[in-house]
Amino acid sequence: MALSSEEVASQSARAVFGRVLLKLSGESLMGDKDYGLDRERIDAVAGEIVEVQQQGVELAIVVGAGNIYRGMAAAAEGMDRATADYAGMLATLLNALALQDALERRGAHTRVLSAIEVSEVAEPYIRRRAIRHLEKQRIVIFAAGTGNPFFTTDTAAALRALEINAEAILMAKHGVEGVYDGDPRVEPNAEFLPELSHLEAIERGLKVMDTTALSLCMDNQLPIHVFALADGNIRRVVDGERVGTIVSTPTSGAAR
Q: H-helix or E-strand containing 112?
C-alpha cells in the first residue's frame, strides 16, 4: 500500500542515504529450491525494496544469476568461457524481469536497463538515462552485467554504482550475516568481521566481492554494506543501523 505524503516525509528524514545500489545474488531469489525462481521469495524481496524506495531513497539494483546458472552447470562444463559468460548475462535478464514484475505488482515504477541489446524487453543501458530514471523515483534494475565476458556481476555492481554516483553498495547475501574470516558454512569457528577496509578484504582474500570490484570501490572510496537478506535488513541499513559488515576506505584519517 502506498504511503501518504506525510509518512514519506517522515521516513525520508530517517534514511541516511539518498541514492544506493543494491546487489542481489541470484541465490537470494530461489528460496529453498536447488535452482530457479521462488515466487514467494521474490515477492518478499520486492515488498521490502518498495518499502525502502517509498522512503524517498533512489534505488538501483544489480541482480546475479547463480540461481539459474546452477541449473545449467553441467551444460556449461567445458563450454568456452566467453560463451558461458554471455549465457550468464542472459540469465541475469531473466531474474531482472521476474523482479520487475514483482515490483510493478506493488505499484512501483521500474525500468530494466540491459548492457546487451534486448530492445523488446529492456532499455539499453545509457548512464544519463539511468540517472534520470532515478531522479524520477523509478527503481532501476541493471541487467546483463557489464555486457562483457570475464567480468562478474560484482564488478557490474561496482561499476554501475560509481556511474550513477551512488553513496554506497548494499550487498544482500544469501545465508550469511556479513563478512567472516572464513566460510562459516564450512568453518564453524570462522570469526565475524563487523568492519574492515577494502584493502584488508583484498589482501586477506575475503569473500566480499571479486578483486576487480573491490579495487574499483577502494580507488573511489565507495563503501560496501554486506548483510544477510533477512526481513527488514535492507531498510535497517538505509536507516543507518549497523547491520552486517561495513567495508570502507578511510578518508583523511577517518572512515567514510
A: strand 110-114
Question: Would you call 184 exposed, middle or buried from its count of C-beta atoms within 10 A (0-12, 13-18, 19+)?
Answer: middle
Summarize pLDDT for 191-245 with one digit per residue, the tens.
999 999 999 999 999 988 999 999 999 999 999 999 999 889 999 999 999 999 9
CA dihedral (72, 143, 34, 49) in degrees, to 10, reads 180
What is the number of other CB atoms lying within 10 angstroms of the CB of residue 133? 21
CA distances from 5 to 10, 13, 54, 57, 139 (A): 9, 12, 10, 14, 19
For 138-179, the pLDDT digits (tens) are 999 999 999 999 999 999 999 999 999 999 999 998 878 899
| 114 bridge partner residues | 124, 143
Structural domains in the chain, sorted by start: 5-248 (3.40.1160.10)
Q: What value does the CA radius of gyration of the chain take, rounded to a whole number of Å?
A: 17
